[in-house]
Design brief:
Shape: elongated
Order of helices and strands: HHHHHEHEHEHEHEHEEHEHEH
CATH superfamily of one domain: Glycoside hydrolase/deacetylase
Strand content: 5-15%
CATH class of one domain: Alpha Beta
Radius of gyration: 40 Å
Largest sheet: 9 strands, parallel
Number of helices: 13
Bound molecules: zinc ion
Oligomer: single chain
CATH architecture of one domain: Alpha-Beta Barrel
CATH topology of one domain: TIM Barrel
């Protein structure tokens, strides 16, 4: 290899140091092929190093960063706007009183949802309105006791005979529970205290104009098992109260209780006194199922000053179409004699079928079907605001304008 001459040595040094080109014919030619501008003095910079190119690159990056920042800002502003607007779009507080206040995201998801408006059914009352989902302790504007607050709308009875149909033991059989909701009269559903998962069912029932009781298991005479956490005469007052509270606290929106079985317990004055005191504290009513002639339930309730009534007829002690029909004839006769009568049945297929036939026929004969609270109110001398008219116009217990019904 030949040792490089001075010119060549300089060239390699320049490459190594990335120094600017010197003015040399051959090298200048090479540099000229680039599109850079020549500097005064003939010295040229590498392409990327030239100020024009550098400015273009800086400008390009600045544009990209500016667009990205702008995009992010717009997105965050959109979210802020939505979050601010959503509370205004929510329904009035009364309609959501029971719901825990949802996060902005949940509010957004709920906003377009319309309140549950059940399909109208041709009931005589035509006064049912979907009540808001409420709990007993979240209605600061309504000071009435729970039995009035949660009472289903009742048609004006006037001088016509009225029947309250109460169906006990509800919630243990889901299929029959659903069928009860399709009966074309306001039914009082007594949900078994220990029944599971009844929140949605109870809400739908009330929206349809049905009324709710909690069915509290009590000790019978004999060996029949009344069920979970039944009230028995051997319990201490504290334990009776604790068990009753356990049943009551599992449900919502009910006007009172009635006894499941309980021929023994309801005849025990000391035990019933504990029960009635607890109901009184909660503003609830007591319906005496009268499973024993010796029951002291109604008289204990009356003595304590809580609204109460007793069952007039059991519909299905004998489960069979003709037996149930005979009991329905009996309750209609009692309603004509006494003005109002309370029938208690059970969610048997035969009972539901008999009611499905009986209700329209009885209506045609001038019978009015009412929630049990209407009978309790009359028998307790309580004035319950009558709502609606027999002519099919509708109204609401609360006095707010009725929703359109088909
Ligand atoms: Zn029962």
């Amino acid at each position: 290899m030949v040792a490089p001459g001075p010119k060549q040595r300089y060239f390699w040094l320049r490459i190594a140091n990335r120094a600017p080109m010197a003015s040399s014919g051959g090298q200048r030619k090479r540099v000229k092929t680039g599109n850079g501008r020549r500097k005064a003095g003939g010295r040229k910079r590498p392409f990327v190093g030239r100020p024009g190119v550098r400015r273009a690159i800086v400008f390009g990056w600045a544009t990209i960063v500016a667009v990205a920042v702008g995009f992010l800002l717009m997105r965050s502003m959109d979210e802020t706007t939505v979050a601010r607007q959503t509370p205004a779009a929510r329904p009035a507080p009364s309609a959501v009183a029971a719901a825990p206040s949802p996060s902005p995201a949940e509010q957004l998801a709920q906003t377009p949802r319309t309140p549950v408006e059940p399909a109208p059914r041709p009931r005589e009352t035509a006064v049912v309105a979907p009540p808001p989902p409420v709990t007993a302790d979240e209605i600061p504007y309504d000071a009435r006791p729970a039995w009035q607050r949660f009472a289903a709308a009742s048609p004006v009875v006037g001088k016509r005979p009225a029947i309250a149909i109460v169906i006990d033991d509800d919630g243990l059989n889901k299929k029959e529970a659903e069928e009860l909701l399709s009966l074309e009269a306001p039914i009082t559903l007594s949900i078994m205290g220990y029944a599971e998962g009844m929140t949605d069912y109870a809400r739908r029932a009330r929206a349809l104009g049905d009324e709710l009781l909690v069915h509290v298991p009590m000790e019978p005479q004999g060996k029949a098992d009344p069920g979970t956490k039944a009230l028995t005469v051997d319990l201490s007052p504290a334990e009776i109260r604790a068990r009753l509270r356990w049943h009551l606290d599992r449900h919502d929106g009910f006007v009172g209780i009635n006894n499941h079985m309980g021929s023994r317990f309801s005849s025990d004055a000391a035990g019933m006194k504990v029960v009635i005191e607890e109901l009184k504290g909660r503003g609830l009513a007591f319906l005496d199922s009268r499973t024993a002639a010796t029951s002291v339930g109604e008289e204990t309730a009356r003595a304590a000053g809580i609204p109460t009534a007793s069952r007039d007829v059991f519909l299905d002690n004998e489960i069979g179409a003709s037996a149930i029909e005979a009991q329905l004839v009996l309750v209609e006769r009692k309603a004509r004699e006494k003005g109002m009568a309370i029938a208690i049945g059970h969610p048997h297929a035969a009972t539901i079928e008999a009611l499905r036939r009986f209700i329209p026929q009885a209506k045609a004969r001038g019978i009015v079907f009412v929630p049990v609270s209407a009978v309790i109110a009359r028998r307790s001398g309580e004035a319950i605001e009558a709502v609606g008219t027999t002519g099919g116009a509708s109204g609401k217990r609360s006095g707010s304008p009725p929703p359109p019904r088909g």
